[in-house]
Specification:
Blueprint: H1 2-32, E1 46-52, E2 56-65, E3 83-84, E4 91-95, E5 102-110, E6 119-128, E7 131-140, E8 150-158, E9 166-172
Parallel strand pairs: 1-9, 3-7, 4-8
Antiparallel strand pairs: 2-5, 5-8, 6-7, 6-9
């Protein structure tokens, strides 16, 4: 009778014993296994600098996708090649915009001290993987300059963003 009772107790507790033994075995195997840690170095850095003179101010508008092709405007400092600051409307200067390419936009504004009847050059330099790409647009003022006249300068930088690391600078002179 005692033997039968002992077997009955073991049958009731067998799943518990089995589970505990399995858990301890897995714990032992995991602690005995070697764990290898590997590192992956990622680079996603860029730098920028905006320099402006001649009493103009500039504001970075960032990188986006171009949604439409637009005729060139701001190709030279001649009367038909530049984009002139006007009051009340933000003008646009660009060269070679292609639909779905990435574009970098910078807004250039006049101040009360911006010279009249002058031509200005906006230069974007992008340096990536040892290559330098230079983009140039031309802006002009008329005989009357009012503060906060604006031109959005839009540069087509290609169908893909430059690989990291890259840097860019904008000079407005």
């Amino acid at each position: 009778m005692r033997f039968a009772k002992a077997i009955q107790i073991v049958r009731k507790r067998a799943p518990l014993y089995f589970s505990a033994k399995l858990l301890l075995s897995l714990l032992f195997l995991v602690s005995a296994a070697s764990i290898t840690v590997s590192t992956t170095q990622l680079q996603a850095e860029h730098g920028r600098a905006i320099a402006f003179s001649n009493n103009l101010v500039a504001a970075d508008r960032g990188v986006s996708r171009n949604t439409s092709g637009t005729a060139d405007a701001g190709t030279s400092c001649g009367p038909s090649g530049n984009v002139t600051f006007t009051t009340g409307t933000i003008q646009q200067a660009n060269i070679g915009l292609i639909v779905n390419d990435f574009v970098y936009t910078i807004q250039v504004n006049t101040t009360a001290l911006t010279p009249t009847n002058s031509c200005f050059t906006v230069t974007l330099r992008m340096i990536a993987s040892g290559n330098t790409n230079t983009y140039v647009l031309h802006l002009a003022t008329s005989g009357t300059v009012v503060a906060d006249q604006a031109v959005n300068c839009i540069f087509d930088i290609g169908s893909a963003l430059p690989s990291s690391p890259y840097s860019f600078s904008v000079a407005v002179q």
